[in-house]
Design brief:
Layout: E1 2-8, H1 14-33, E2 44-48, E3 66-70, H2 81-94, E4 98-102, H3 109-118, E5 126-134, H4 138-144, H5 147-155, E6 158-162, H6 169-182, E7 187-190
Parallel strand pairs: 1-4, 1-5, 2-3, 2-4, 5-6, 6-7
């Protein structure tokens, strides 16, 4: 199973990024069905532990291979650990090919990974952590919001810097440099 964990503060674009990744999966499936190499898309599950403005309503339909599950009233790394582990047990039984986890804004990524390691999920899966960072808030949040925000950046395999429309090039360079300081191994994408 592929596990794509998407972290970031509220309004940073987590839901939008997951929708883009799911749309890419659908395009690849359409390409495969038109006679090109590749197979049918597998089952995709999205576990949403955030209550942002953008939702997934209308993104699944009859015969769709996607299921959306919401846990909006708390954080799966601390207050909702029991509910999260119960859902993970169900997910393991259903055996999706891809699991997207949209984490709450204040979630500690490493705590979620530890829960999944304890359940022996990570050992048989491919994990990718995508951290969404808003250019409007990034430097302020790194300085003043504390460990959880930095931990999300340090945990990311990919860091997407969003809301860059109003940024000058030197501001983006400063943001990128700070992100590289915190996570030198991450791929940083500004858009």
């Amino acid at each position: 199973m592929d596990i794509i964990m998407v972290a970031g503060f509220t309004g940073s674009g987590k839901t939008k990024r997951i929708k883009e990744m799911m749309a890419n999966e659908a395009r690849q499936a359409d390409f495969a069905e038109s006679g090109h190499s590749g197979g049918k898309p597998g089952k995709i599950m999205v576990l949403v532990n955030d209550k942002g403005d953008e939702q997934y309503e209308g993104d699944t339909g009859p015969g769709d291979n996607r299921e959306i599950v919401y846990i909006p009233q708390g954080c799966i790394c601390c207050t909702l650990t029991a509910e999260f582990t119960s859902l993970l047990e169900r997910i393991l039984k259903e055996r999706p090919d891809k699991l997207f986890l949209e984490l709450a804004a204040t979630c500690y990524v490493q705590d979620v990974i530890k829960i999944m390691e304890d359940m022996k999920i990570i050992a048989n899966s491919r994990l990718k952590v995508v951290t969404m960072v808003s250019a409007e808030d990034c430097l302020y949040f790194v300085k003043y919001l504390g460990d959880f925000y930095r931990e999300q950046i340090e945990s990311g395999h990919e860091i997407f810097v969003t809301h860059t429309e109003e940024c000058k090039e030197d501001e983006l360079m400063e943001i990128s440099a700070r992100l590289m300081e915190l996570n030198p191994g991450a791929r940083i994408i500004c858009r």
